[in-house]
Write a structure and sequence with these properties.
About 15% of the residues lie in helices and about 35% in strands. The protein contains 5 helices and 18 strands. The protein is globular and about 50 Å long.
Protein backbone atom coordinates (compact mmCIF):
# COMPACT_ATOMS: atom_id res chain seq x y z
CA UNK A 1 0.00 0.00 0.00
CA UNK A 2 0.98 3.65 -0.35
CA UNK A 3 3.33 4.69 2.42
CA UNK A 4 5.33 1.47 2.42
CA UNK A 5 9.07 1.81 2.05
CA UNK A 6 10.48 0.00 -0.99
CA UNK A 7 14.08 -1.22 -1.04
CA UNK A 8 15.64 -1.13 -4.48
CA UNK A 9 18.62 -3.31 -5.45
CA UNK A 10 20.64 -2.14 -8.46
CA UNK A 11 23.80 -3.44 -10.12
CA UNK A 12 25.45 -1.28 -12.77
CA UNK A 13 28.83 -0.64 -14.36
CA UNK A 14 27.95 3.06 -14.58
CA UNK A 15 29.42 5.46 -12.04
CA UNK A 16 25.97 6.70 -11.03
CA UNK A 17 22.26 6.19 -11.70
CA UNK A 18 18.91 7.71 -10.81
CA UNK A 19 15.38 6.38 -10.46
CA UNK A 20 12.25 7.87 -12.03
CA UNK A 21 8.96 6.39 -10.82
CA UNK A 22 6.15 6.38 -13.39
CA UNK A 23 2.55 5.57 -12.64
CA UNK A 24 1.31 3.72 -15.72
CA UNK A 25 -2.21 4.11 -17.11
CA UNK A 26 -3.97 6.79 -19.13
CA UNK A 27 -3.12 10.50 -19.07
CA UNK A 28 -4.84 12.22 -22.04
CA UNK A 29 -3.18 9.85 -24.46
CA UNK A 30 0.06 9.28 -22.56
CA UNK A 31 0.46 5.96 -20.76
CA UNK A 32 2.72 7.17 -17.99
CA UNK A 33 3.13 10.03 -15.51
CA UNK A 34 6.27 10.66 -13.47
CA UNK A 35 5.51 10.89 -9.74
CA UNK A 36 8.99 10.85 -8.19
CA UNK A 37 12.65 11.22 -9.15
CA UNK A 38 15.64 10.32 -7.03
CA UNK A 39 18.89 12.25 -6.87
CA UNK A 40 21.89 10.74 -8.64
CA UNK A 41 23.07 7.69 -6.71
CA UNK A 42 26.46 5.95 -6.78
CA UNK A 43 26.58 2.98 -9.15
CA UNK A 44 27.99 -0.32 -7.88
CA UNK A 45 28.60 -3.58 -9.71
CA UNK A 46 27.01 -6.13 -7.38
CA UNK A 47 28.02 -9.83 -7.00
CA UNK A 48 27.01 -12.32 -9.71
CA UNK A 49 23.95 -14.58 -9.56
CA UNK A 50 23.95 -17.30 -6.89
CA UNK A 51 22.49 -20.74 -7.69
CA UNK A 52 21.16 -22.81 -4.79
CA UNK A 53 20.93 -26.59 -4.60
CA UNK A 54 19.48 -29.23 -6.86
CA UNK A 55 16.39 -27.08 -7.53
CA UNK A 56 18.66 -24.49 -9.23
CA UNK A 57 17.09 -21.55 -7.45
CA UNK A 58 18.81 -18.33 -8.50
CA UNK A 59 18.98 -15.16 -6.45
CA UNK A 60 20.88 -11.89 -6.59
CA UNK A 61 23.01 -11.61 -3.41
CA UNK A 62 22.99 -7.83 -3.56
CA UNK A 63 22.96 -5.01 -1.04
CA UNK A 64 20.16 -2.40 -1.16
CA UNK A 65 21.04 0.61 -3.30
CA UNK A 66 18.35 2.99 -2.08
CA UNK A 67 14.93 3.11 -0.40
CA UNK A 68 11.86 4.71 -1.92
CA UNK A 69 9.24 6.45 0.21
CA UNK A 70 5.83 5.91 -1.40
CA UNK A 71 3.80 8.20 0.87
CA UNK A 72 1.27 10.06 -1.25
CA UNK A 73 1.65 7.82 -4.30
CA UNK A 74 -1.80 6.97 -5.72
CA UNK A 75 -2.65 3.27 -6.04
CA UNK A 76 -1.72 1.84 -9.39
CA UNK A 77 0.80 -0.03 -11.48
CA UNK A 78 4.22 1.56 -11.68
CA UNK A 79 7.48 1.21 -13.53
CA UNK A 80 10.66 2.44 -11.88
CA UNK A 81 12.99 3.54 -14.67
CA UNK A 82 16.71 3.27 -13.96
CA UNK A 83 18.79 5.83 -15.85
CA UNK A 84 22.59 5.91 -15.84
CA UNK A 85 24.92 8.79 -16.54
CA UNK A 86 25.94 6.96 -19.72
CA UNK A 87 22.48 7.61 -21.14
CA UNK A 88 22.37 4.58 -23.41
CA UNK A 89 20.71 1.76 -21.44
CA UNK A 90 17.57 2.06 -19.36
CA UNK A 91 15.97 -0.70 -17.31
CA UNK A 92 12.67 -0.97 -15.47
CA UNK A 93 11.47 -2.41 -12.18
CA UNK A 94 7.71 -3.15 -11.94
CA UNK A 95 5.87 -2.16 -8.77
CA UNK A 96 2.21 -2.23 -7.72
CA UNK A 97 0.89 0.16 -5.09
CA UNK A 98 -2.13 -1.72 -3.80
CA UNK A 99 -5.56 -0.25 -3.25
CA UNK A 100 -6.69 -0.16 0.39
CA UNK A 101 -10.06 -1.75 -0.45
CA UNK A 102 -11.35 -3.45 -3.58
CA UNK A 103 -15.01 -3.12 -2.58
CA UNK A 104 -17.08 -2.04 -5.59
CA UNK A 105 -14.00 -1.97 -7.83
CA UNK A 106 -12.75 -3.78 -10.91
CA UNK A 107 -9.51 -5.41 -9.74
CA UNK A 108 -6.66 -5.55 -12.26
CA UNK A 109 -4.17 -8.29 -11.42
CA UNK A 110 -0.52 -8.44 -12.49
CA UNK A 111 0.42 -11.99 -13.51
CA UNK A 112 3.80 -11.72 -11.79
CA UNK A 113 4.01 -15.44 -10.95
CA UNK A 114 4.03 -16.19 -14.68
CA UNK A 115 6.62 -13.49 -15.34
CA UNK A 116 8.85 -15.13 -12.75
CA UNK A 117 8.37 -18.61 -14.23
CA UNK A 118 9.76 -17.42 -17.58
CA UNK A 119 12.47 -15.27 -16.03
CA UNK A 120 15.89 -16.70 -16.89
CA UNK A 121 18.05 -14.18 -15.03
CA UNK A 122 21.10 -16.01 -13.71
CA UNK A 123 20.73 -18.82 -16.24
CA UNK A 124 17.66 -20.66 -14.94
CA UNK A 125 13.88 -20.40 -15.37
CA UNK A 126 11.12 -22.94 -14.74
CA UNK A 127 11.59 -23.89 -18.41
CA UNK A 128 15.32 -23.91 -19.15
CA UNK A 129 18.74 -24.21 -17.59
CA UNK A 130 22.19 -23.56 -19.05
CA UNK A 131 21.85 -26.42 -21.56
CA UNK A 132 18.64 -24.93 -22.92
CA UNK A 133 16.65 -28.05 -22.08
CA UNK A 134 14.28 -29.31 -19.42
CA UNK A 135 16.63 -31.55 -17.46
CA UNK A 136 18.59 -28.82 -15.70
CA UNK A 137 15.83 -26.23 -15.44
CA UNK A 138 14.91 -24.67 -12.09
CA UNK A 139 12.28 -26.24 -9.86
CA UNK A 140 12.11 -23.05 -7.77
CA UNK A 141 12.50 -19.41 -8.76
CA UNK A 142 12.64 -16.34 -6.58
CA UNK A 143 11.55 -12.72 -6.72
CA UNK A 144 14.96 -11.85 -5.21
CA UNK A 145 16.37 -11.14 -8.68
CA UNK A 146 15.64 -8.87 -11.67
CA UNK A 147 13.60 -9.88 -14.72
CA UNK A 148 15.80 -10.62 -17.72
CA UNK A 149 13.20 -9.68 -20.34
CA UNK A 150 10.88 -6.79 -21.12
CA UNK A 151 13.77 -4.43 -20.30
CA UNK A 152 13.33 -5.57 -16.70
CA UNK A 153 9.53 -5.18 -16.72
CA UNK A 154 8.72 -8.84 -17.42
CA UNK A 155 5.57 -9.17 -19.52
CA UNK A 156 3.96 -5.98 -18.24
CA UNK A 157 4.55 -3.64 -21.18
CA UNK A 158 3.48 -6.06 -23.90
CA UNK A 159 0.70 -8.07 -22.25
CA UNK A 160 -0.81 -5.82 -19.57
CA UNK A 161 -0.18 -2.10 -20.12
CA UNK A 162 -2.57 -1.77 -23.12
CA UNK A 163 -5.49 -3.12 -21.08
CA UNK A 164 -4.54 -1.05 -18.05
CA UNK A 165 -4.54 2.08 -20.21
CA UNK A 166 -7.93 1.18 -21.70
CA UNK A 167 -9.49 0.52 -18.28
CA UNK A 168 -8.29 3.88 -16.95
CA UNK A 169 -9.38 5.65 -20.14
CA UNK A 170 -12.90 4.24 -19.65
CA UNK A 171 -13.01 5.67 -16.14
CA UNK A 172 -13.77 2.37 -14.44
CA UNK A 173 -13.57 2.20 -10.64
CA UNK A 174 -10.26 0.31 -10.40
CA UNK A 175 -8.15 -1.47 -7.82
CA UNK A 176 -4.69 -2.93 -8.35
CA UNK A 177 -3.03 -6.12 -7.13
CA UNK A 178 -0.65 -8.94 -8.08
CA UNK A 179 -0.89 -12.72 -8.14
CA UNK A 180 1.14 -12.82 -4.93
CA UNK A 181 -1.39 -10.50 -3.25
CA UNK A 182 -4.17 -12.85 -4.36
CA UNK A 183 -2.31 -15.75 -2.75
CA UNK A 184 -1.51 -14.15 0.59
CA UNK A 185 -4.72 -12.21 1.32
CA UNK A 186 -7.97 -14.21 1.57
CA UNK A 187 -9.91 -10.93 1.90
CA UNK A 188 -8.34 -9.15 -1.06
CA UNK A 189 -11.47 -9.52 -3.22
CA UNK A 190 -14.11 -8.89 -0.55
CA UNK A 191 -16.90 -6.94 -2.26
CA UNK A 192 -15.05 -6.53 -5.56
CA UNK A 193 -17.23 -5.91 -8.61
CA UNK A 194 -14.94 -7.84 -10.95
CA UNK A 195 -11.46 -9.35 -11.25
CA UNK A 196 -9.51 -9.17 -14.52
CA UNK A 197 -6.23 -10.92 -15.20
CA UNK A 198 -4.76 -8.88 -18.00
CA UNK A 199 -2.48 -11.28 -19.83
CA UNK A 200 -0.77 -14.63 -19.66
CA UNK A 201 -1.64 -15.81 -16.11
CA UNK A 202 -0.52 -19.45 -16.07
CA UNK A 203 0.97 -20.13 -12.61
CA UNK A 204 -1.48 -20.39 -9.70
CA UNK A 205 -1.24 -21.63 -6.14
CA UNK A 206 -4.12 -23.49 -4.46
CA UNK A 207 -4.75 -20.43 -2.28
CA UNK A 208 -4.98 -18.14 -5.32
CA UNK A 209 -7.55 -20.41 -6.91
CA UNK A 210 -9.54 -20.84 -3.68
CA UNK A 211 -9.69 -17.09 -3.04
CA UNK A 212 -10.82 -16.33 -6.59
CA UNK A 213 -13.41 -19.10 -6.55
CA UNK A 214 -14.86 -17.84 -3.27
CA UNK A 215 -15.13 -14.33 -4.67
CA UNK A 216 -16.87 -15.67 -7.79
CA UNK A 217 -19.33 -17.63 -5.67
CA UNK A 218 -20.15 -14.45 -3.75
CA UNK A 219 -21.00 -12.59 -6.96
CA UNK A 220 -17.72 -11.12 -8.20
CA UNK A 221 -17.34 -11.29 -11.98
CA UNK A 222 -14.15 -12.90 -13.33
CA UNK A 223 -12.43 -12.36 -16.69
CA UNK A 224 -9.26 -13.88 -18.09
CA UNK A 225 -7.93 -11.90 -21.05
CA UNK A 226 -5.10 -14.30 -21.88
CA UNK A 227 -4.77 -17.97 -22.73
CA UNK A 228 -3.42 -20.78 -20.54
CA UNK A 229 -4.83 -19.43 -17.28
CA UNK A 230 -4.53 -21.53 -14.08
CA UNK A 231 -2.49 -24.20 -15.89
CA UNK A 232 0.55 -24.81 -13.65
CA UNK A 233 0.20 -25.35 -9.91
CA UNK A 234 2.73 -23.61 -7.65
CA UNK A 235 3.46 -23.19 -3.98
CA UNK A 236 5.38 -20.49 -2.16
CA UNK A 237 8.19 -20.36 0.37
CA UNK A 238 10.00 -17.56 2.15
CA UNK A 239 13.45 -16.12 1.52
CA UNK A 240 15.54 -13.99 3.90
CA UNK A 241 13.87 -10.96 2.30
CA UNK A 242 10.34 -12.00 3.22
CA UNK A 243 7.38 -14.36 2.84
CA UNK A 244 6.08 -15.66 -0.50
CA UNK A 245 9.26 -14.75 -2.37
CA UNK A 246 10.14 -18.25 -3.64
CA UNK A 247 7.86 -19.85 -6.23
CA UNK A 248 8.11 -23.64 -6.52
CA UNK A 249 6.93 -25.67 -9.52
CA UNK A 250 8.21 -29.16 -10.28
CA UNK A 251 5.48 -29.58 -12.94
CA UNK A 252 5.16 -33.26 -12.07
CA UNK A 253 4.81 -35.67 -9.15
CA UNK A 254 8.55 -35.59 -8.32
CA UNK A 255 7.73 -32.66 -6.00
CA UNK A 256 8.83 -33.98 -2.57
CA UNK A 257 6.26 -32.12 -0.47
CA UNK A 258 4.17 -34.66 1.51
CA UNK A 259 0.83 -32.81 1.18
CA UNK A 260 -0.85 -34.12 -2.00
CA UNK A 261 -2.90 -30.93 -2.35
CA UNK A 262 0.31 -28.88 -2.64
CA UNK A 263 2.21 -31.10 -5.11
CA UNK A 264 3.05 -28.88 -8.05
CA UNK A 265 1.68 -30.80 -11.02
CA UNK A 266 -0.51 -29.31 -13.72
CA UNK A 267 -3.89 -28.17 -12.45
CA UNK A 268 -5.82 -30.38 -14.83
Amino acid sequence: PAGDRVRLYVSTAASRFKVVAYRMGWYRGARARAVWTSPWLPGVRQPPARVRGAVHQVDAPWRPSTTLETTGWPPGMYLLRLDTDRGAVRRFVPLVVRTASTRGAVVLVNANTTWQAYNRWGGYSLYRGPTGGDQDRARAVTFDRPYDYGAGAGDFIGAELPLLALAERLGLPLAYATDVDLHRDPHLLDGARAVITLGHDEYWSPAMRAHLTLARDRGTNVAFLGANAIYRKIRFAATPLGAHRTQISYKDATDPIPDPAQVTTQWR
